[in-house]
Records
---
Amino acid sequence: MDLVAVFPDPPPPDLARTLDLAGYRWKAVGSPEDASRHEPTNGWAGAIVACDTDPEGAWALCRSLRKRDPMVSPMVVLVSGAQLQDLELRDDMFDDFCLTPFHPRELEARLKHLFWRRGGGVRPELVEYGPLSLNLETYQAAIAGRPLDLTYMEYELLKFLSQNTGKVFTREMLLSRVWGYEYYGGARTVDVHIRRLRAKMGEEHANLIQTVRSVGYRFGQSRWGS
Amino acid sequence: MSVNEQQRDYVLHTVEERGVRLIRLWFTDVLGVLKSFAISPAELENALVDGMTFDGSSIDGFSRVQEIFILAMPDANTFEVLPWGDPKQAEARVFCDIHHLDGTPFDGDPRQVLQRNLLSARHQGFQFFVAPDIEFFYVAPPERGQPPRLLDEGGFFDLTTTDVTGSLRKQTIRTLEAMSIPVEYSFHEDAPSQHEIDLRHTDALTMADSVMTFRLVVKEVAAAQGVHATFMPKPLEGVQGSGMHLHLSLFSGEDNAFYDTDDAYNLSPIAKHFMAGLLVHAAEITAVTNQTVNSYKRLVPGFEAPVHVSWARNNRSGLIRVPIPKRGNPMATRIEYRSPDPACNPYLAFSVLLAAGLRGIERQYELPVEADANLFELTDRDLAKLGIEQLPQSLSDALRVMESSELVAEALGDRLFEWFLRNKRREWRDYKTHISAFELDRYLRAL
């Protein structure tokens, strides 16, 4: 489960959503310095660089990631139609590109193929935390070995939370990341689904999802050990 | 992948991985009866994309002579593996919206009636949340023409009643929670063999689906033990009936729109207008919230059921109660509408309640003063002085008021409105022509 670098910080919401739904672990970086600072111990597993808002910054990041030893790969750049010419003479700086506005399925397919070619891949097939396991390939969840039958949105919420253990999310953040911005149900929906998940996991496991008073929710233990 | 495609993918994978053999397509007729037909996994993908055509002629309120075939469109987000039956032959259910073959919404589909009403709430910036307290009785399997036999009566069970009904209730709650229906409280009610289960609040559409699921789960779990569960509003004379008190609230975004820190009651102007809307239109919507002949035998003085159109904070004789939230939690601010019974069609009941409340907000209806006296003890003259009216006293009364209600016609849609009235008038006529034991005992010899 290696980390992919994503530019800019924050990335466009549709990009974040596509990556989340496809099950990638990623970290937004705003500059080459950022990318060094946050680099995981075993290096970046790849990078996805959106060029629309800050093309200069974007290419600067690509250059610096490619200069490393070993260089970061695979790298995908997202460019608008008007920016296609920028690709010229920069063939060394990316492995593939995608036109914006991109089709989520196209981007997902390109990434899958690139990571497959690289071997192994970063796509985590299995998320495990304590008694909980999620198989992202088959959409099946289990708790203490017992299958957990979830509705689609319950599954998506649990997937997102369990891929980001120890982090606190506000209701608004969960709503935009899991349901998407076009969803109209309001932030109460998050509470309702959390309650449903806890009920399904059973009393003994309900505390896997913690309520953080007047902030939101956290899955698993806090990173600060509280 | 679009969200719809992802949902579909999720459902198809789940069916395969969990070895689901049968998928039940659920929908509701106009009277709130759960209808279902089953398809095989092989048909599912096609059903999710294009819907399933079926013959609607056998279903009350669905058929018209020239139009028999209609389309059930599954709502993939309601797909759920059923937690009962043989796990090796697993079954699943999915709620459907009903459409004409050309794809337009079908007028007789209560689920879409509610969706339409929720959409107009959304246009005004509100999400409608509902939490019902549902009461019901466990009885011995009924025999035609015989009064219900309670479980407390000796001989029916070897175990003591508390053991049996207690375990039934526990099993019911486990099953409900496995089906995404969290339970807030449950307890044995005042009447013998009567129980109450309170559901945790959620958005009105999910809650209406949940009430449909709830009624099935309660009956299924009971039937597996040879017990019959009934949601009949008043099964026993002289004992309190079964209600479905509805806790209602509106949210705008993260905020409870009913809450106001500065108000003496912690109620916002929106809450007060909403309540006023319910009170003004209460009589018009009663045929929908209390749709059977028997419903009106519950709405009598002395049994904790409301009779008068009034509100109060802590007075159980009024139609609307404003519960004081635990620990003053603003999110829990809500009003409790107390007349509905669990035999209603939840989609339609939530629709008319929302429409009445929103009308109050739109037209800025003024909330009358709180009626904190025990209304059952006041004389008719006192009540008249306070401007407090009674709810309709019979199905016939309720239908008469509903018939002239432009609000209810608009909320239900003209076709469904007409059909409902026609069906219920027929029920009233059948009831009126029936000569009851009451009459025979009272008049046959004496007159």
---
Amino acid sequence: MSEIVYTLIEFCSVADVEEQFVFELVEHGILDPALNQDQWLFPSDALNRCLRAERMQHDLKLNLHGVALALELSDRNQQLRQRIDYLEQLVDRFRH
Amino acid sequence: MEFKDYYKILDLPPAATQEEIKRTYKKLARKYHPDVSEEADATAKFQEVSEAYEVLKNADKRAEYDELREYALNPNQFRGAGGERAQFDPNFSAENGFDDLLRSIFGDQGGFTTGARGFGGRQAGSMNVRGQDIRYDLAITLEEAFEGGKKSLRLTTPNGNKTINVTIPKGVTLGKELRLKGQGEPGQGKGSAGDIFLKISFIKHPLFEADGDDVTLVLPVAPWEAALGTSAEVQTLGGKVNLKIPANSQNGRRMRLKGRGLGPKDHSGDQFVILKLVNPPVESDAEKAVYESLKAAFSFNPRETMARQS
């Protein structure tokens, strides 16, 4: 389930987006597909990222530079939050 | 539909300018957008704010809404268009008027709903609309994450209860999403069905804390074990192992058990063991005597570095 990868055509079909949009996402570094014999391969995580980008662009009227920045900051935020949770739990286990 | 005070939702006075409304909407949309927000009820809040803006951004609709609002807040004062309408139409109510207004803006659903995809409603032009994705949190134990395997789930969907079988990938980590293709809401027309996404979270474990691919275990040790060194039986997600604790270990010492963590490729993560020195309660005279002799044997000042810095 976690190992699914999509070619560009498959990706566009399951995400229900135009190829041009995917090109732009890759160009802005929002998606970073692996390259296999001149063919892009998208991991399944990319799907959620693509849909998030689409929603942000539409709902918040962001251009793709803004979407890229927002996604990056929000990912980093989430990583930090997880890290804080982990450290808090650890401190707790140390105290009791 | 119940009457909603859009000014309250946007936290603006009714006299706010169009420019203020726009600015506030943009700010709140960024705050509550489910893709960036960490607020608990972000989706509902975002929809509420978007609906308020859709109505208030248009001066005509806003004027109409303002009259309804006036009437809803003061139903006994027959003023404005709502009041006049009420005088001629005994069935008039602020709720009905509000319904009509919403219908004129959003169509038959009579209110702001999420569209086929975007939270803000990507209204499809054609009748072929892909079904909505459904998202759930899937709370599993660290053992389940470590082993992977099949799990049967009962989900409550808008179309009733549904039992699905999920394969949890071996070594799955916190926040990963599992996708069940085509198991979401059915599409309209030729639109394909949406997907179910299950986001992995961990049930609090009595011993381990997960940190990405790694797991950490806090291991209590006695002062003499830390001082003299020992071999201790330590739990890992894959069973017990013996861990050598070197002599002269300090509180907080961190040791690594390679390949005993989570991670997608054969548990690429590690288990970390952090030593926690636990002092035994000293009660009997014999126990006290041991500490007295320790005190005599060592010339040790635990606050030496502090003394040097002050």
---
Amino acid sequence: MPAVKAFVDGREISVEKGTNLIEAAKLAGVFVPHFCYHPGLPVVGVCRICLCELEGRPKLVAGCATGVEEGMKIVTRSKKVADARKAVMEFLLIHHPLDCPMCDKGGECTLQDYTMLLGPSRSRFRFEKLTWPEEDVGGKLVLNKNRCILCMRCVNLCKDVAGLDEIAVLNRGEQTFIGTVDGRMIENELAGNIADICPVGALTSKDFRFKARPWELTNVSSVCPHCSKGCNITVGYHPRRNEILRHTARENMDVNQWWICDRGRGGFHHVHDPRRLTAPLRRGEGGLGPTTWNEALPAIARTLRDVITRHGARAVGVLSSGTLTNEEHYLTRAIFTDGLGVTHVDVPPRPQPEVVYRKFTIEGDRDPNARGARLCGIAPTASGLGVRDMVRAAAEGSIKALIFLRGGPLDLFGEPAIVERALGNVELLLVVDLLPSAVSERAHWVLPGVSFAEKDGTFTNSQGRVQRIRKVLTLNGDTREDWRILQGLGRALGVTTTPDPDPERIFSRLAQAVPAFSGLSYATLGELGAPIAAATADVAVG
Amino acid sequence: MATATATFEPVLTKTIHLPSSHTLAVYKKHGGYQALATALKKTPDEIIDLVKRSGLRGRGGAGFPTGTKWGFVPKSTDRPKYMCVNADESEPGAFKDRLLCQKDPHQLLEGTLIGSYAIGASRAYIYIRGEFAHEARILEAAIEEARKAGYIGSNILGSKWSCEVTMYLGAGAYICGEETGLIESLEGKRGWPRLKPPFPAVVGLFGCPTVVNNVETLACVPHIVNRGWEWFAGIGPERNTGPKLYGLSGHVKNPGVYELPMGVSLRELIYEYGGGVPGDRAVKGVIPGGASCPVIRGDEIDIQMDFDTLTRAGSLFGTGTPIVMDDTTCMVRAAWITARFFAHESCGQCTPCREGCGWLQRLLWKIEEGRGEEKDLDTILSVTDQIEGNTICALGDAAAWPARGFARKYRDEFLQHIREKRCPLDGGSLH
């Protein structure tokens, strides 16, 4: 579409022909209120709050449904427009319960905001209001129809993005309501987005509701750690409680548009799991017992050095994880491969069934950064063994030390019986993890790492986009960021001489060392990330 | 006027009094389907031009020039085009299309076929109101007869043009008579009117160019083809041409459908044809063209019944179906009944209509019940202002106009209700 010249309240803009008036007005710095319009959903034009005046046209037009034409003069500040907006606000509120003090949306409610902005402050409606009982509409949402303004966003999200008619408009006139069909539940895994885009408190998240007021939360930009898609999220945490209370979708047109799936939305609960490992553990007479970092790191290093001295670096296997950051993969490589000459370095794949919705796919790799691991060279070299072979070699006795940078169920690493034999055989079994697992239970040493929300770093998604995660929470107990653990090990092993003070500086080394990352820095990644250099082979460190 | 109408010979309803007027045999005996044969020998453009010149304006209420509407359908397109017949006659007071479907379905089919030919459609849908089950059966039978006789189907009357006609029974919603609501309903969706533009002529049924025409509009078409545009244009006042079915109801001695020229005087219609008011009481008010048209007072009935005149007078011609109310009628109650209808039929899609109609209904009932306050009258007027022009379709306007009309024309009666805290007519003759 060619660019046309138009005017918004007298201000000239140049805009692609056909752009709707809401978006066009934005370019002129003019805000046009809207409830039903959402850039990611079909235009329905039902709420009527975006009515604008066009010079020379007698009737107001819906800003969302009207495209800009050459020379169009859009007026948003006339009395006519103000009256129409006020009228719509009054209409929307006549049956509204005005229960902001007890509504979970309060503080981030479009209806509340516009009421403050546009009024009216009093209603002329003096009749009994229509009321509806609260309704459970599925695993993640609660429907309060009293607050619903019938903007259709929920219906259109399910229809257009998920491609499912799980929620619909029923009945007509003032008895019109949003509901599920025949009392069935909303089951699609994108339904949580409804709570994000509902402009009122009609559909709220069961997981988040009544946990906190939105203004009590601090919002931090991050990336979802639950699949290789790398959806951009906003982590909402309660600083005083040091607790994450929700994930919401963060717009990134190159990755997830405006949406995230419900796995990612609820994907912070493991961070607050009461079983979290909070101190280094060492195996003693009575099993695993607490120890200190100062004791653990030198002791682990000594044992590892000893194994290498006696059996060579080929007796060591390092099993990393696609949940670790690029920075941590870089350190892993620098310490074990480059520093100690370990050749058996790999990441166990964690596939899952891909879930394809009409306009959103949950990817088939549960790891957020398997791509980054490969790019950093966390893959067996020509003479090295992969995960399953490493485990088999350990079971057969040729590998004497196994380092798991994340644990997991036995079958993640091979045939459970073989894995069990391997874990029992080795002289050194070190596990770094957040939670106890079948692997960590058998370890000689367990070091408490941290989650995606407790450290800075970057993930590389399946498309090769490098994006930042951010430290949100203060560390719990005696846990340490994984990059710090790796640096500590490197120091104890005598291979890291000058540890970097933060992941940003580790990343700049990484960008120097790994061609795929060349030219990138935390500054260039910004909020939305940046793609790796095109046409770089995944195992790229020379 | 009386002399002009006295010499008028019915055209659309000429055969309805005959036994079996709905059959093909009777229709053909009176010249049926000759217009189709004539039309098929002309080009579609010639037909559109003919209808344009006749001055035929849509009989469904809006009065849009039919030929112009047909002319909007793009000529150079690979997409199929559709003709939709709006037989969803649902407005209180309107019952003229029903008569045409019931008594002369072939006239409608012939008009439908000629219209389809003119716009290049090879499929027509007749969307008939759900409650018209009897008429639907008649129409179905007529379609079958016409198909067997070769008027519907392939290579109609030896021409290269083929056309199928399908009847679709609505499910009982006034809003499905709104042309885009009708299209949505026909597509199997909720009958929610669409945002315009695009207009149906460009993006209509199944996303294809579509014309939606009223039953009476299409019934006029065969006669225009048979008798020429000059004949049609010669009936009635300028810009408001042709014969018209007036559905007269309410407080008249002889309610019914009367075929007269456009522009007949309302007084003449009520007194000459309707036989006046029972008990020879005074006319208190008339809703001239179906419930959405603002009421006019009993002293305003010396008015020409046509689109332009009634619009100038602040009301609307609508479907040309006056509802007469005598002096036993409580106008607050009449307003409330009208508002209740629109509140019930509002589709619920857009805010002003969904919320405003219910509010109007409550305000009017409050006054009728004797609980009204003077400010309620202001609120009624203000709510109608807040609805009008701000909605997706015209139902919002259709609900706002009559409420405003009643409140303005009978302000004294509203105030009397408020002052006396009761209905001075005890509800009057309406229930």
---
Amino acid sequence: MTELHPEMHERRILGTELLWAFGVGVLVAATLSMIVFTALTMNINPPSNVERIDPKALHLSGEFAEHNLGTTVAADGSVTTRVVATQFMFVPRCIAVPQGRRVTLRFSTPDVIHGLLITGTNVNTMVVPGYVAQVHTEFTRSGDLLMPCHEYCGIGHSEMWATVQVLPEGEFKPDSEGKVSCAQR
Amino acid sequence: MRNVERLCLAHFWVAFGAFLAAAVLGTWQMWVRSPLGADVGTPGQYFMSVTAHGVAMGYVLTTFFIMGFGYFVAVTALARPLPGKAWAWFAFWMSIVGVIMTTVPIATGNASVLFTFYPPLTGSPWFYIGLVLVVVGSWIWCVLMIVAMAAWKRENAGRPVPLAMFATVANAIMWLWTTVGVAAELLFQVIPAALGLTQTIDVGLARTLFSWTLHAIVYFWLLPAYIAFYTMAPRAAGGRLYSDTMGRLTFILFLIYSLPVGMHHLLMDPEHGNGTKFIQVLLTAFVSAPTLLTIFTITASLEIAGRLRGGRGLFGWIAALPWDRPMVLAVGLSFVMLGFGGFGGLINMGYGMNAMIHNTSWVTAHFHLIFGGSVVIMYFAIAYEIWPRLTGRGYTSLAPLRAQLWLWFIGMMVMTLPWHWLGLQGQWRRVANFNYADPIIAGWGPWVIVSFVAGLVLLASALLFVRNLLVLHLSPQAAIARPLYALAVHPPQRVPAALNGFALWNVLVLIVMLLAYGYPIAQFAIAPSPSAIVHRIE
């Protein structure tokens, strides 16, 4: 190091570091731009509706009372599925959803923290006591999917899952009250 | 000096003892959840084991290692006695008491809430109180690090604090900020609930407070690896540190950006809106900057070493590096794992993309690769580097050290690549057993077995690591020729006050934290959410 290589002069080192730092800045800016772009144009956002509900009473009345659970088609044709996540099961244990139509999934819990995903889809949310978790999605393929609880909720956590039946348009038939249940197979 | 060496060794042996136990448990867990272990263990035993594994790796290995390493750096880099040595021993024993208080309820199945707690589930109050004692012990360490640096600065007015100590104090200050979140959650919410003083808990608030700690704690674990990158690796390779200033800047950036990013762990949570989530995703993107700067500076430093050793051409210097030295080998392997893990991390922080992988094996793979891989392999390298200096003994052969590092690297890569793959297919986390009869799950079986075999490789590496250190204790006395800390190409004569202390940066951290966590925490007071009933598992 007695004879300093030209690359090793202090100003040269500073210049190189700053050039690299500029490159890092461009990389970070590009990544963030993509996130902003997809959020604004394709509505790719995390589930964040911040809707409060009392976990101690949600099963007694209102939308998470037993007779309102499962999939309902409203008069305007919109499809909503309501599920209660509780130690250690989903109620109902099987939900029927239409293929190729927008579905609103709404979850809540009377007890502890749960979470869920539906395999092979982008459905993924935490279910936190005190809140309604809401996800919008469209199931592109018909068939049975798994909906496991993916957050530790107690010793029985591993046994907690539900089935999602994605039904083709012809098989997705609401009854007189607009309810759709899983097909018996 | 003797007493400081005993202090360091005491911390390190507690850390690595916990590490070995946790490695055994981790391997057992992988057996249980693979098709091979379908009939092994109960869910109760499995979650007890997961809790113990997380506590031992995440809280005991890290905290004790970092404290021991800090004392070592304070004495060697500053070349002055450690102030408050009695306090250091007091903190050590208090932390030991804390570990015991935590371990007993875990081992009796009264604290199977995993190391991330999940209130309204609550375990035995002793579990949490023990952890608080460990944290308070680490706070004493933080104060001692700050005091040691201040004393040195008084004696050496105007001179730049040696980079190793500057970085250690950056980590200590970051840790003080980091622990505020979890301390508030435990002291005001979880421990009163566990003691039976309160019957309900605001879960959204608890998750938010924990997220304050949850990401920065990983940088607390990570910084010793970065200290070794900057201050030990260039010397071990036979070169110089490319830029001391970039080192200081990197550790300052870590102090600022590690903290206000924890909410990216809550991207899938319903208690926060998109605005606050997006702000923290923005800040999370910035935290990649210090790592990318480090990769460049350390690669440049290694290039200097390679060229000094006769390496030629664009890549010839890489082959010329002394890969037979454990520190150099570990840095190379660590960078490879950091590359894969960092790429995965971009998906995790990717706001919308996070929905593909949240709470799947992908996330487990990510933090095992980053922490268990690139960080822990540097813990090994640091231990190998400083153990001869603590014991005055020398290795008779470096071959078992290199073998151990390679085994760890291979084990980590082979374990985590299938986990990433299975995570993308929707394999979810934290399950004691899978129903391999299910057609969706059946195809995962072979990959779970592959990762279990890799777990056995990791266990072999962990055993070899402890064996290597034990053998050194029995080896003959040997003098150490090579100095430990690297010189910069241009060792700084004077540095601006902002690069020689943390007063300014603490103000900045406060401002950024108010921006990032002010409203998200205040909202629970402005519009209280309905609280949940406490579920005691005792």
